[in-house]
Design brief:
flat; 158 residues; 4 strands; 31% helix; alpha+beta
Length: 158
């Protein structure tokens, strides 16, 4: 891939910040020319892997790694207009029924289902407002961006 989107490297849930670290390290390792990907002695290679042996394992790193800030309060590097995709994005989020459904076991950890849409929509509207659109998705990049012409930036200052 040319772009990899990872969870923001700070957050309240260990799965999120650990996935960020593992994803970044995987991107780095994928670019190593001398990385031996053959199975260790005594391990059996799956048929899926052996079928893929015909495919080149040339080193590759993505051009850009960006981070989805999720629910961490940080000023984003940029915002993507998701106005046309908001409903589909919300439906996809709600597919995680173990986290986003009214259930006794998670009532202290997760908001009530009726409140989830209000929260998600408020955040998307907030970031959209910052970018001048209806709904926005915030992202963070670690690198400083290069701009050749300030007049080509899509958001006006005043």
């Amino acid at each position: 891939p040319q772009v990899v989107i990872l969870p923001y490297w700070k957050g309240r849930h260990p799965d999120h910040y650990t996935a960020s670290t593992l994803g970044y390290e995987a991107c780095f390792l994928a670019g190593l020319k001398k990385l031996d990907l053959s199975p260790a002695a005594g391990e059996q290679q799956s048929s899926k892997v052996s079928q893929a042996d015909d495919v080149s394992h040339a080193p590759h790193r993505p051009f850009k790694i960006i981070y989805a800030s999720l629910y961490y309060d940080i000023r984003p590097s940029f915002v993507v207009d998701i106005s046309e995709q908001f409903e589909e994005r919300f439906s996809s989020l709600m597919a995680y029924t173990t986290q986003f459904s009214d259930q006794e076991s998670g009532k202290d950890l997760f908001p009530a289902q009726a409140e989830i849409r209000t929260r998600v929509e408020a955040m998307a509207r907030f970031y959209g407002m910052l970018a001048g659109v209806t709904y926005g998705e915030p992202f963070v990049q670690k690198e400083v961006g290069l701009v050749e012409d300030l007049l080509t930036l899509p958001v006006k200052s005043i």
